[in-house]
Write a structure and sequence with these properties.
The protein has about 300 residues and is α+β, with helices and mostly antiparallel strands. The chain folds into two domains: about 10-100, Phosphorylase Kinase, domain 1 (2-Layer Sandwich); about 105-290, Aminoglycoside 3'-phosphotransferase, Chain: A, domain 2 (Alpha-Beta Complex), CATH 3.90.1200.10. It has ten helices and ten strands. The protein has helices at about 10-20, 60-70, 115-130, 155-165, 175-185, 225-230, 230-235, 240-250, 250-275, 280-290; strands at about 30-35, 40-45, 50-55, 85-90, 95-100, 105-110, 195, 205, 210-215, 220-225. The strands form three sheets. A five-stranded antiparallel sheet has the order 1-2-3-5-4. A hairpin with a 7-residue loop joins strand 4 (about 85-90) and strand 5 (about 95-100).
Length: about 300
């Protein structure tokens, strides 16, 4: 079942044609589509050492173009970031682009692939601190170009409250509304910083039990870092949450906003994708809501 009615028809035949026309040096490599809970891009392995990402639907076209513009800027961070090798165009939508990257070898950062949750949490916190030091000159501001990750929370209230009400059969709607209101009342960070925008297990790579890489930068932009701190309830193990906060030196208001961002992502996704559209993302959303103490 497609996750969205407007998804492009993308298969190995299309990818093979794009390679033959634009990157013939790789046209003889085996092409294999990867299963993913991601909602914006399709991912294909090209042989053993490359990956191709291409938008799944119109709303993802600008996200990937922005990522291709800025990905080189993120090199040199404490965790590996994909290296862009080729940028091409696909006739799926105006200005639809695709990227070919070095494959980041490893396993997704699910709990059984992490040797020590505390070390992993501290490593991710140090990565974010380094990301926040990256120059923001000319960078895109949080907004439509990154699905509004990192904007002022109260700008998202209408959609969030509607999603909470839709999920009243699964969550403590009253408590969820109260937490959202508390988060919206906090003051945002005055100086915006670079965000990744989607720090979940599928976008974090491990090697030998250690956090190694951060992939999928389509939701990156400059905004409130609390949008990334939300991973404290999305990915960080509850036992390591305090270490994550301490390493980042996050103040109480930013921590409450981070809870708001975790709440937002979970209710928006679950209210839309439940019913078989994206079971993996729904499981993650329910886990987040459980960690926030909001799941019935």
């Amino acid at each position: 079942m497609p996750m969205h009615a407007d998804e492009f028809l993308i298969d190995e035949v299309l990818i093979g044609r794009l390679l033959s026309e634009q990157a013939p040096q790789w046209s003889n490599l085996p092409i294999r589509r990867l299963a993913s809970s991601g909602t914006d891009n399709a991912i294909f392995r090209l042989g053993d050492h490359l990956a191709l990402r291409i938008p799944k639907r119109p709303t993802a076209v600008a996200l990937l173009a922005k990522e291709l513009d800025w990905l080189p800027h993120f090199q040199g961070l404490p965790l590996q970031v994909p290296v862009l090798r080729f940028r091409g165009r696909a006739d799926l939508w105006p200005d639809c682009q695709f990227g070919i990257f070095d494959w980041v070898e490893g396993k997704i950062a699910s709990p059984h692939n992490i040797a020590d949750a505390g070390i992993a949490a501290r490593d991710l916190a140090r990565f974010l601190k380094a990301l926040h030091k990256k120059d923001i000159a000319g960078a895109p501001a949080a907004g439509e170009l990154n699905s509004r990750r990192g904007v002022a929370l109260d700008l998202l209230s209408t959609a969030t409250r509607q999603s909470i009400d839709v999920l009243a059969d699964e969550i403590d709607a009253r408590g969820t509304h109260a937490l959202w209101e508390e988060a919206c009342l906090t003051r945002g960070q005055k100086t915006p910083v670079w965000l990744h925008g989607d720090l979940k297990a599928d976008n974090l790579i491990t090697r030998n039990g250690l956090l190694h890489g951060v992939i999928d930068w389509g939701l990156s932009a400059v905004g409130d870092p609390a949008a990334d701190y939300a991973t404290a309830w999305v990915w960080v193990e509850p036992s390591a949450r305090a270490e994550f906060q301490a390493t980042l030196n996050v103040d109480d208001e930013a921590w409450v906003r981070a809870k708001g961002w975790a709440l937002y992502g979970a209710v928006i996704a679950l209210s839309y994708y439940r019913g078989g559209k994206n079971d993996s993302l729904c499981r993650q959303s329910r886990l987040t809501l459980s960690r926030l103490g909001l799941l019935l």
